Predict the structure.
Amino acid sequence: MRALAELIDRHGVDVLDHLDREATVPVLAGLQRQGDVIVVPAKTARIATAAVIPVPAAGTPVVRGESGGNTHAIVADGPVFCDVVTARAGELRVAVLTVPEESTAYLAHPEHGYVGIAPGTYEIRRQREQADVARLVAD
Amino acid sequence: MTTKRITALTPEQHARMAPYAQQWITRGWKTGPLTEDEWAAWEQGARECYRFAGIDWPGVVVHVPSPLVGSLAAPIAAYRIAVARKGGAVRGAVRGAVDEAVRGAVREAVGGAVDGAVRGAVGEAVGEAVDEAVDGAVGEAVDEAVDEAVDGAVDEAVDEAVDEAVDEAVDEAVDEAVGEVISRLWYYRLGGQHSAGWWQSYAGFFRDETDLDLGETWDRSRAYDAASTAGWWWPHRDYVMVADRPLSLSLEQVGPTGWGSHRLHCETGPAISWATDSLYFWHGTQVPADLVEGGWSVERIFACDNQEIRRCAIERLGWDQFIGDAHMRAVGAVADPGNPGQTITLYELPEQLAGMYGDEPVRVLLCTNATVERDGTRHRFGLTVPAQISDPVAAAAWTFSLSPTQYRALARAC
């Protein structure tokens, strides 16, 4: 398990200075939430196919911040695959992530830090609220 | 040999579409008053537009600080000129005669506006010529990659919003006679920098990035482009009135490039401002200045009868503040899965706010961030969820389209 400081060094996504850089980041295979974005294991999300697009060294942005806010990005330790889904109204899925054995993926965000993702396939989802649904219906 | 028709784009031209759209977007987002040189270039373009429309250059150019000022001043000027021509017959006539005299002056004022002729000569003529010279599939590709991108970021996001705001402001114009001419004439204008989508960026792509040769058509489009570097402009036989660029502009991106990509938003001041007036927008909804500047109290929110604006005001205040101030009733509170030490609480929405989110009744789930702020506090925020849900964990699960059991298994939150 790596400490936050080491992950920042390796992957380049810096975090706000008040976050504890000595804290170790657990690498887990279960359901994990980062702010308003959630990482859902394939079995729960009922995904059959793996992701195929390799995550580059600079990382793959999966959710861009609104109003110039911050981005949630996948960065990779070893080969990792992340297929970003075209944004569609009413669709919560933003990406499918596949982490092969021997690799680790991290979902990084400047305000929330890093989330360690163990081998497996996952769906990355964003959060919704009823106000959004009402807006969709109105449109 | 010159190309008179385009049936396909080269791979290089394909690759140029997105950067070309970005050039127009950057131009559309430019702020700050025009410099003397920029005004000179603008005027040269406007002159050429009149020439192509076959109308004598009036030689009188009036700069106004904002589109709202122009929208009131241009019709008033046209009206006053028309009245003066009629020898001041409107003043001193009896009621029935006044109506007819006013109508006559309005007709003449409308007749003096030449935006239609100019638009036809340098707008429609260009659009039609390009349409004819370009193969359907090619046109569609450029339309999608260039025109729609610029539309979403500039026209739709800025121009339409300003247009609606000015329309409302014009509705409030006072004196009847003057009011009538203003409401008829203010939109006899040409678009300026915020109206670059539609055919301008589309035609521009073929003019600048391919070797399609349309001769004088390109001169016309260049003239219109030059005359679109400032704000809205009102071409008239006797004068040209033109608004300056905004002093500030604040947009947020809410979707991928293309239609609906951007909207006006600013939490700390006007979303778009000129020297004389400002407009405030909250996530694309026009709101009164004080909603953004000071924020509204709970009383003010309840007193407002516009649902959309109420929502903006509550978002500005923050649900955690509103829940306390409005003494909302808690339905249930439980430990937040994956977020040790923190609670999620479900609240009933006050009666007076029913219908704020459409037909479906809502409750509000108050959550606390899993990560602390710089000052050690934790940010609290509210999410609207369907009112049928009574369990906070079920509500939280709903926001991620998971079952309560699945959500309870949350291993970690940050």
Summary: The helical segments of chain A are 4-11, 42-45, 130-138. Chain A has one domain: 4-132. Residues 76 and 105 of chain A are 5 Å apart (CA to CA). Chain A touches chain B through 36 residues (CB under 8 Å).
